[in-house]
Design a protein that fits this description.
Strands 2, 3, 4, 5, 6 and 7 form a six-stranded mixed beta sheet that branches. The protein starts with 8 loop residues before the first strand and ends with a helix. The chain folds into two domains: about 140 residues, no CATH class; about 35 residues, no CATH class. It is elongated and about 75 Å long. The protein has about 180 residues and is of the alpha+beta class.
Length: about 180
């Protein structure tokens, strides 16, 4: 690993031809900084994030597979309460050298290409892959639990903690004809 470089960044010649595991624990401040750099404000680390990555090099190709573990906190989309999301995800990525002839803007991707990244120069930085995988693990609409009842639309009480004292809203007379059709 490169000296003085945060996270998982390697010189290509340091990556062995036999599979080897590398472990890095991202401190809470590192995770916060990485999330801020990516303009992610909805999640916060509750503990350090551990990344275990197995690397193997073949000529100029590098193959990685890894595991990311930790615990993040976010806000429930229904009740607006904070809750923890345990993170335990596996990933794999192949890295190929970027050639001048390769124009990534005009390349049509297949499903297999989604697990392929490109590097240039003599270093391979896995940190962006770790952060991308971590961010993609967070649900688009996070729920503290599947049956979260949310907030009362009248008084804002958390309905997971019990019923509120609001009276039910008056029935909309425009729907009365449909109510009559119910058996």
């Amino acid at each position: 690993m490169l000296k003085g470089v945060r996270g998982l960044k390697f010189r290509l010649q340091e990556i062995p031809r036999e599979e080897k595991e590398f472990v890095h624990v991202y401190g809470i401040s590192e995770v916060i900084q990485a999330l801020q750099e990516r303009d992610v404000k909805e999640i916060h680390p509750l503990e350090p994030i551990e990344a275990r990555v197995r690397l193997i090099r073949s000529e100029k190709q590098v193959f990685s597979r890894g595991l990311i573990r930790g615990k993040m906190e976010t806000t429930c989309s229904r009740c607006l309460g904070p809750f923890a999301i345990p993170i335990k995800l596996e990933f794999q990525q192949a890295f190929l050298p970027r050639t001048k002839a390769l124009n990534l803007e005009e390349l049509e991707l297949s499903a297999d290409d989604l697990d392929t990244s490109y590097y240039s120069g003599d270093t391979l930085d896995l940190n962006p892959i770790i952060w991308d995988e971590l961010i993609l693990e967070i649900p688009f609409i996070p729920l503290c639990r599947e049956d979260c009842r949310g907030l009362c639309p009248m008084c804002g009480a958390n309905l997971n903690e019990g019923e509120c004292l609001c009276s039910p809203p008056p029935a909309d007379s425009r729907w009365e004809a449909l109510r009559q059709l119910k058996p």
